[in-house]
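Form 7-S
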Amino acid sequence: MAEDTDALAAMTRILSPHCRVTRVSSGALIADWRRTRFLGMTTTEMQKFADGTSEERAELVTGLIRAGCATARRKEHSNVEVGLWLRGVNLLIRTIGFGRVLRLLSLAAPDYARADLPSAEQVARLKRTVQSHSRRSWFVNDDCKAEAVTAFVLLRRRGLKAVLHVGVREHPFAMHAWTSSAGLCIPDADPRGHAFTPVLSINGGGQ
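Output:
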């Protein structure tokens, strides 16, 4: 029984949001509600998800990806890509304004498709890369808005969960933006120890 639960949990983490897995007597049934399709898995395949080798699990995951029931993980963005995105976002903010950029997020940052959460290590690496580029570039110059939007877009484009926040401080008045994911913030939510009250939080692609 515990193995069944482990197998279901393992499958749920890699399935696309529109798919649901249900335990049946002969194994499991995956329902793809977006396309109204169903995929069956045997008890043996279920056991491979729970305690099989990495090769066996990879083979099953590949089958689910081909069937359209799971989303392949995108590779992490390279150092060069992060720098290009950061400068591009900063230029867009300067050109059309931060508010309009937020309204365009649904085009650049679709809703995340993976059920498994990003690791703190992944987010920490992205944070170091984004802030390194931001500090070295006279053009970006530590702009929190560009850093937050860049991090949000890059995480979402990899299918990972992230939330973009915009906060205010009353005395003296100031605004700040940051993206939170896996318990970390890009950039820090309270720069120099100043607390900002969130007035806007974007959970999905511009929502």
